[in-house]
Write a structure and sequence with these properties.
Length: 120
């Protein structure tokens, strides 16, 4: 029983020395200062977001997946881009309808093309 106790004590001392040595060499494992609570390393450009920007998007991994704040921020940003694009598309579609109506009105005012007009 005494020999087993000595082995356990020696093992504990060696493990403690290895821990202290590793802590001295590697520090706490943090190479950079921690980010502020609301900060994120996740980046999207200030300009319009492209498909390549979304494909290159990476989130910081934590113990159980990704940081929720980063994912929420990216989703909010992408939702804003989609809303902006949808509004622009709607405005362009309305403009096309107005232009087509203007063209139809101009053709109606010209009357039927009887072929008597000189070509330009």
């Amino acid at each position: 029983m005494g020999t087993a106790l000595v082995y356990v004590l020696v093992l504990a001392v060696v493990a403690g020395l290895v821990f202290v040595l590793a802590a001295a060499v590697f520090g706490r494992g943090e190479e950079l200062a921690p980010l502020a609570p609301d900060a994120t390393p996740t980046r999207l450009p200030a300009r319009e977001v492209s498909g390549a920007d979304v494909r290159d998007l990476r989130f910081q991994q934590v113990l159980r997946g990704y940081r929720m704040a980063e994912v929420d921020w990216a989703l909010d940003r992408l939702a804003g881009e989609l809303d902006r694009i949808r509004v622009e598309r709607h405005e362009l579609a309305e403009r096309v309808v107005r232009l087509e109506a203007t063209i139809a009105r101009m053709r109606a005012e010209e009357g039927p093309d009887d072929g008597n007009r000189p070509e330009q």
